[in-house]
Amino acid sequence: MGMIAKVGDWFDRRLQLAAPVRAMAEHPVPRNTASWWYVFGSAALTVFILQIVTGILLALVYVPSGAEAWSSLQALNHNVTLGWFIRGMHGWGSNFMVAIVLIHMVQVFLFGAHKFPRELTWIIGVLLLLMTLGMAFSGQVLRFDQDAYWGLGIGASIASRVPILGPAIVKLMLGGPIIAGATLSRFFALHVFVIPGLLIGFVCLHVLMVLKLGINEWPMPGRIVRRATYEAEYHALTNKDGAPFVPYAVWKDMFFAAFIILAVAACALYFGPFGPTGMPDPTIIQTVPKPDYFFLWLYALLSLLPPSLETPVLLIGPVLAIAGLLLLPFLSGEGEKSWKRRPIAVLTVSLIAITLGTFTHLAGFTPWSPHMNAWSSDPVPARLIEGSSALERQGALVFQVKQCRNCHSLGESGGQRGPALDSVAVRLTQDQLIRQVIQGGGNMPAYGKNLSPAETTALVAFLGSLHPKGQAPARDASRDVTLTNANQPFTKP
Amino acid sequence: MATKPALAPSTDAAISRRGFFMKLGIVFNALAASVVAVPIVGFLFSSITRGRANGYLSWVLLGKVSEFPEGETRLATFRNPYVMPTDGKTADTACWVRRVEGEQFQVFAVNCAHLGCPVRWFPQSGLFMCPCHGGAYYRDGSRASGPPERGLFEYPYKVQNGVIAIQAGELPTPGSATALLTGTTPCAAHEQFVSIQGAEASLENRG
User: Fold this and answer.
1) How many helices (H) and strands (E) does chain A have?
2) Is A178 within 8 Å of B136 when comparing Cβ atoms?
């Protein structure tokens, strides 16, 4: 017996782990589950382990103090050798982890793996998804910059809307009356101790259940899951058509795991770490806070919901969504597994993906937000004032100075909160323009108190000149008649 | 022999004796857990009340009235009255001070009434605009457009000896104490108003 074998034998006499580990590794899996579609679970675990490693490395330097966190991140980025790379790995690892967990969930759902007898595996998976999102949010807070600060403010504003308990929840969440040092400390505890501890425990349970219950077989259209017969059928399948997990299926997991680690490293190397953006100083209000990628859809939703629906959707929506996910295996615990025979499942996934994708895309350019600097930075396109009268040019000035540009674009630059005004004169008559400017309406503030009659006249003259060449501006047909009649002395017919 | 050995206990009695001690052990641990739970829960929820009748609110000085020209809205900053050693810059807070005329003010929180982003004042158009979700407010803080359901939060203020003070100390959210008070009416917390005698001197020291 060689020396290594002897040492190994010495340990195993005491640990007695070799036999169960071998049994686990060599347990038979259905042959057709050795598929590239089955690699996302192990990839999620791989990224999680990577996150633990890079997280511990960051904790060697990071200071969870409201006064020093931001500068310790700067030190990591600029002073500590390869600190920027480890930060990049951790930040990109976070994005990869959320993405892989979501893909894993969709795959599991479309393959019917949530059905009997794997209901609890699914439920724990849902909890793991929530914890992963919790890690993503708390991690964004630890990157204690302006986005983190105002993101916490948004979280607090949402929490405060809970009836009766709202204010107490806010102070519990912030660790005090304001977003400050205590807030960061408790998010640090959540991000570094509480959630990872839970994650490790639940990941172990999740994997244990996959081993005990067996990996979900490749779904065949027409092969129906029945509580009474499923387990016997599954065992027959693995016995008849099974192969040992190691090495028959594991090599694909290993390839994909290595690919994901390299992809995270490549992103860290090429794109670098995330932020930190500006200092978390609440007196610096020249900031446009934005959440991290995986919360952008929420940012869009909060902007687009009608005000009256917002609080109910914010408070009841998550409860319904989580309850729906948890109850799913009980609502459809039997029946077809294959996505080819589950059109509603496929449509649901597509609808959710398209909705989230659209919201995320919209949040990339925030058409609902005023462009705070458009009025002083985006010039009026020269073609719009070519050959215009002095009054119209004065109106163009009013248009810029009164920040109309922050919400209305001209020549594709400016805010998109309100409609583009390049050809507004075709849509609105002079009277309608005056009314809209003075009284506002349709989500536009009233400018009556902030415009002198001269400014209004100039502004409306400018807006009235905004129409394509060869297309006449809108005009009220009765206006000329009324004006003409007003000038005519009244005569009896 | 017909009699049992004196030292051999009956099996039933031994189980119930051990069982009794195990149950006693559980009770003892439950007792210990509940004794320890009281301070743990007290610690965990200590941030909610701070054990004070008026919570975290205090009167803080913003500056001399003369620093705020009539008819204009200016950004003012103050240090939050409740500070922890690790707060750093985060305990500094900004607010918009509108001097309507004379000693009549409106002091707005910078936090949008929608979801708390910092609103910016545009004197040319007389609007506060929020960069996040597009909320806009008129110069008097009332809602102009966008998702907010109400106007800007106002701090209660007090002018004494030419110095303006506001009652602050909490992040203004739709449910917070700050949000429930309005600035223009004399507030219920009047008796809590800390005398600001000699405030000018302290302001000069601060500067």
Assistant:
1) 23, 4
2) no
Residue A212 tokens, joined: 């005990």
Q: Which residue has the tokens 């989580």?
A: A322
Looking at per-residue confidence, does A162 or B192 come out higher?
A: A162
Flag if B129 and A149 touch (Cβ within 8 Å).
no
Tens place of pLDDT per residue across chain B (207 aa): 445 555 555 555 567 888 899 999 999 999 999 999 999 999 999 888 765 656 688 899 999 999 999 999 999 999 999 888 999 999 999 999 999 999 999 999 999 999 999 999 999 999 999 988 889 999 999 999 888 888 999 999 999 999 999 999 889 987 776 655 543 333 333 333 433 434 444 444 443
Model confidence over A228-273: pLDDT tens digits?
999 999 999 999 989 999 989 999 999 999 999 999 999 999 999 9
- Give the residue from B140, B145, B150 with the most A CB atoms within 10 Å of its CB, the best one to mutate: B145
C-alpha B103/C-alpha B70 separation (Å) is: 9
Q: A55: closest CA among A196, A151, A257, A262? A: A196
CB-based contact, B119 to chain A, within 8 Å: yes
Rounded Cα distance between B125 and A170, Å, is 34
- Is the bond preceding B174 in cis, omega lying within 30 degrees of 0? no
- To the nearest whole Å, the CA of B196 is away from the closest chain A CA by 23
Distance between A359 CA and the closest CA of chain B, angstroms: 13
Contacting residues for A270 by C-beta, under 8 A, at least 6 apart: none
3-state secondary structure of B158: strand
How far CA A328 is from CA of A224, A324, B78, in Å, comes to 17, 6, 51
Q: Does B142 touch chain A (CB under 8 A)?
A: no
Alpha-carbon distance of A220 to A197, in angstroms, equals 38
Distance from CA of B17 to the nearest CA of A (A): 35
**Residue B175, helix vs strand vs coil:** coil
pTM of the model: 0.88
String of b and e for B116-148 (b: at least 16 CB within 10 Å)?
Answer: bbbbbbbeebbbbbbbbbbbbbbbbbebbbbbb
